[in-house]
Structure formats: structure tokens, C-alpha cells
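Hey, resending since the last one bounced:
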Amino acid sequence: MPNRLSLRALLARLATLTVRHPVAVLVAVAAPAILGGAGALRTPVDLSFTGVLDRSNPEVERYFRAARRFGLGGALLVLLEGDEAELSSARAVVAGALATLPEIGSVEPETDPEWWLQQAPWLVDDGVFDDWLSLAAGTPAPDAADRLAAALGGSHSRRVEGARLIEARLAQDPLDALVGEWPFLAIERAVRSALAASHPDVDVSFSGLPAIAAQDQARTLSTIKVLTPVSLLLVLLIFRRVERRPLGLLAVATPLLLAVAATLGVVGAITGELTLMETFFGVTVFGLGIDFAIHLLVRLREERSRGQGFHDALQATLVGTGRGVVSGAVTTAGAFMIAALAPDPVARHLGLAGGIGLLCSLVLMLVMLPALWWLLEGRRGRSPHERRRAWSGAAGAPSPASLGALAAIAGHAVRHPGTHLALATAALAAAAFGLPRLAFETDLTRVFNRHVPAVETVQRVSELFGLNGAPWIASAPSLESARARSARFRAAPGFTRVLSVADLIPSPERVAQRGPRLAAAAPAARARLGLLATLEGADEATISSRLALAGAMAPEGTTPSVALAQGRKALAALIAAQDAGPPSLGELPPALRRALVGRDGELLVLAYAGGSSLDAELAREQRLRAQAIAPDATSVSALLEAVMLGDRPWLLPVALGILAFVVLVLLVDFRSVRWMTLALLPVLVGSGLTLGLFCWLGLSFNVMTAIVLPLLVGLGVDDGIHVVHRIREQLASAGGEERTAAIPHAAAAVARAITLTTLTTCASFAALLFTDHPGLESMALVMLIGLPICLLASVSTLPAAATLLLARTIRPGR
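The C-alpha cells again:
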């Protein structure tokens, strides 16, 4: 960064050049910005979450590697609830509707009834197999009929009384889908339409990442679409306090829009693509860019109101306030650029976009905006008096009376510096005592929109079925290893359901043990089946008496005719299993192969855990258990853990680098440790008290508050820099008794601009408080708490500290 004197000279020459050659200046800065924006049009855009996930994280890469190998897609759970008599047919309708949709890759089937009937005796547990043989022999146990009825229903069907659960997998992983183009909404419409036509009394709800993400975004964006115009209107009304002319507003908007375009082009050229993070940087560019304009415009109006010509007023503005704008912009932009050195894609893209955007905005605001002002100044038909009046305080600038409270605080701080510093110290100490209460939110249900039905369905599925929709998926090269892993998952705590091909193919030991027993029982089963066939068409009393003589018993709650049908079905299945022999991998129905066999032929083991699939702490516990059994196990829950709890060893070096850079820039700018310390005071007090208040109020930090913290730091640093620059300027030109009033006058003068910048930024973020979205609300609270504190510290703590540090040592001109 150039030193203070060379920067003064550069800014003074810039003011002269702007007045002499405004059109040339406009072309010189607008042309590169337009070319950069044109380059952005040719840059690939990746608005998926995959583009901002840290692929260097081993768990993240493991998930995407497995997703590519096995075609996992996103798991979508469909929960049906209603009358038990309707649910089986309703499930068939929903599964059929899902299977026809191009957005669906596969639907986990209930075991094919015909296939299951033929293979069940080879696959059921030993106790049920013994029941089957006892039925053939005519000596069934008292509850054998009930167990056989359950077995014949399919061992892998997800059903409880009054509920069914269907799992579908999307053709495309939802993390690869572009934001705003979620396929879930079309899927939901199709399912609801199919059910409304056939089973209107059956309730349907959805869960899983595709449903949660789409519903959260749809509800939040619909709210933001309403609130954004209100927020922009508030910002406009506040900005009109310093600029009421429509052409003046356009003059400020033009460089901001060009800065956005240029930034997209430069970032795209560096990274090769634009991601979600570049969409967020616009808030930073507009927030800080409009602050640059406010500082410059308030100072220019101040100088013009004193009767100065445009050139002299512009030169005083750029040399005086412009130096603070440069220092604040370079400091904040440098902090963003250092963050871009991190390996994390979020930090890299946000850092590049924020840093380059602020630098582009700085150049355009210092060069283009004055040129546009001068062109407005020189419009035909305006007298010099009219020109001065257009820039005067009467045109809408804040009046001294409106800032009387801040001026009074600054004056009191200078008269009683010890009191103000003691209050600030006590407040920071209280904040420090609250730090042990610091909590980082790990549960996404407390970060997403509060009214996402899919989040509630997560809890409902856990209550009904004891599992969540994010299974841990492991692969196995052979049936033996798949069988071993399945057994270990079933024995491990926390896993409530395990599914694999190994459950559908009996082991050689089981075949050797059951084959002879089936062969021995087959003749008796055929004879008994023939006996039951003679009862077809008989009345209930006859069937009941003959069943008892035949040694068959009716399942509890069924009629004799139903018991007869189930008995014949069980005996037929026993005979079919003996005739067909044990099932093999090649004989699996296609639907089961798609669900349980990977594209490369590896066998999948799906282990479903209990509890929420949206709690990162629980996800970590589940991952450790799963990978102790299968080191390659992964789940979408592993991505949740990586995002919410992932280790970031680069964080401390980056934070220290940013701190060192800020200190270095301020030292170069002020050439004094004392001045540097004074400039840092507001942001240190504001950040410290904001953190402490969050702790004491029980508010948790999350991944979204981490995004907005750099903006708070950047604005807080700007406040201190502008106040210190104005104090130095006032002291340099004051003499005698005037010097004693220089500090409060300087603080009060700058307070006009920083009050407006605080109000505009707070207004833009305040709308987020009404989104019913905890994550966005926490972002707003950081700004709404931190910025006013930085403002207050700039007119109280900073003047008080300046009075004590500089009273005896400051010399005019330093």
C-alpha cells in the first residue's frame, strides 16, 4: 500500500483529472469492467452444493466416490399413514407412480411376493423354519400361524400397523442439482396426485435430503421474495437522506453494478467456474460499496455547503475521506483474499469474490463516481448558485440535530475518558465470562426453516420405524464378506435395520442344514395340502373343524376361510422351495438387484441407524461405529458432519494471517502504533461484545453466522479508520483552544456517515429476522447487534482512548 503522502498526492491528482477529463476517466474504468462482465457470461456456473463442498475432506470424497460407483443418488423417504386395509394397495400406487418418473432412479421394492413365496423357507429364521415344518407335520406350535403369516408377508417390507415406508433414490444426487431446480417438487406433486385419485384418505409425507433441501429453499425463498423489496426500499429511503436526486442515485448504482460484473469475470477467470458463494458476495460488494459512496457523498456535501467549488470540494473529499475509504477497503479486501488461500472451497470462492469485489468497487467509487458527479454538476442551464445548492446540506443530508445524541456522547467521552473506558472494559470482561457458554449448532433442524414438513417427518419415521433416511452404505466383494458385515452391523448398538443381498441368499451351511429337512418334509406337506384343498368352498364351521383335525391353526383375528388360504399358501411355499432349491445371486429379481448390487457388481450393505439424520454430533458417533465395522462405510450424514463439525486446521493460520495483515495495513497507513490501536478499538469492542451477547443470550453460532462475520469485521474496521483519519485531519488544522475540541468534533462529523452506513446495512439484514429461518436470523442478529456497538464505540470508546493516549504527545500535522 502506498504511504500516506504519496496516497494524498495520488488522490489529489485524481480529483483534478476527474474534473478536467470526466468522459475519458469514465471510459478508462468502465471499459475493463464491462469486458470483465462479458467474460463472466462465458464462465461455467455450478450452483450446486457439490461445488462448494471441500472435496479434500476424506469423508466428503468417500461419499462422492461411493455415489459414483453405486449410483446412490439421494434417498427420498415416502411415509404413508392411514387405514391398514388401504395401505398395501396405496403403497403399490405410490411405488408405481414413483417408478414412472424420470427424476427417480430406483424404488426400493417390497420383496416380490411370488419370488418370496418360493424362497422364504430358505431365508427365514430358524424358529420360523421349524414352525413351517411343524405345520407340514400337523403339530404346529400355538403361535406358529402368526409367525408364518408375518413371514409370508415379506421379511423386508417396511410396515407397522397403520404405516408404510417407501425409499426411492433420485436419478441425480440432490447435491449435484442446481439451487432452485430441485426435482423433489415435481415428485411430490406426482405422488399426491396419484394418491388423491385412488386413496384420498391415506396421508403422505416426505423426508430425506431431497425433500428437506427443496422445502427449506422453497419456503425461505418465497419469504425473501416478499421481504427483499421491503428491505431495498428501506435502504433507498435511508440513502435518500444524502442523495435525493434520481440521477444521483443512478450515479451511485452504476459503479456498484459494474463492480459486480467485473468481479464475476475476474473470479471466473481465476477459478474456472462460478459457484453459490459468488452469489453471496453481492451483499458484501453492495454493503461496503454503498458505504464508500455514503462517506464520500457526506464529505462532499459538507465541503460544498461551506461554499467551496466542486474541484476544491472533491479534492478535500478524496484527500481527506478518500484515504479512510482506501484504508478500510484494502484492509477488508485483504482479509477476504487471505481467506481465499484456505483449501476449503467456501472460503476460497467467498474470499476471492469478496476481496476482488471490494477492490473493484473501491476503484470505481473513487474514479467513476466523482466523474459522474462532475457531469451532473456541469449540466446546462444551471447557475453556480444552483449547483452549490444541489450539493448543500439542505438537499437532504442529516442535520446536526439528528445526530445530537452521538455528538453529546463523543463530547462526554472526551471530558470523562476514564468512565467510558471503564464501561467498555467492564462490558468486555462480562462478555469474556460468557465465552464458556459458546455453542456451535450441530443440528440442522435448528438451522433450517422452522416450517419444513420433511424435518417433522424425520422424527415421525424415527418414532414409527426406529430408523432415519440416511443409511450407512458399505460394499463387499463377496457374499461371505457381505454376510459377515451384515451380522456385525446387526450386533452393533445404534443400528436398527440392516439390508443386504446376503439376507436373500442362504449360506452354504444353511443350505446343507435345511435341504435334507425340506426334502423329508415335502411328502407330508403335499399330503396335507391335498387335504386342505378338499375344503375349498366349504362353510366356515366345516373349515374350522377340519382345520383343527388337520393340525392347522388360524392366526389370531382371522376367519377360518382366511386361515385355510394362508395354510395352503404356506404349504405350497414349502413344496416350491424344496422343488426349486436355494436362491442364487443370478436369480434375484431385477428390482432387488438395482437396490442391493452396485453397478460394478459389488454387493451393498445398508445399515440404518436410529435417531435424527440431521444431527452432526450423532452422525459422527454413527460414522465411527460404522467404519469400525466397514472402513469404507459412508452416508450423506458424513457430509453433514464434515460441514458442521469438520476439522479445519487452516482456520487458525488464516485468522492469524488476517489479523497480521490488518495490523500491517493500519501501521503503514497511520505510521503509529497508537493510531492503529485507536482505529481497531471499535471493531474489537463490537466483535467482542457481539460474541459475548450471543453466549449470554443462549444464541448459538452456526455455519451461516460464520459467513457474515467477515462483513461485520470489515464494517467495524472502517468505522474506526474514518474516525481516526478525521481526528488527525482536525488536529492538523486546529490551533490553540480549538485543538481541545478537535476529537469530539471529528467523531461527531464522521458519525453522520457511519450512522448512515450502519442504518443501511442493518436495514438490509433486518428483513432476515422475518424469514422464520434460524440460520438467516442468526446472520441478521450478528449485524444488528455488532454494527450499532461498533458505531457506539466509534463515538465513545475511541474518543476516550484518543484523549488519554494523545493529549500530551500529539503535534499538529502528524
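Residues 393-402, 810-814 have pLDDT under 50 and may be disordered.

Sorry for the duplicate.
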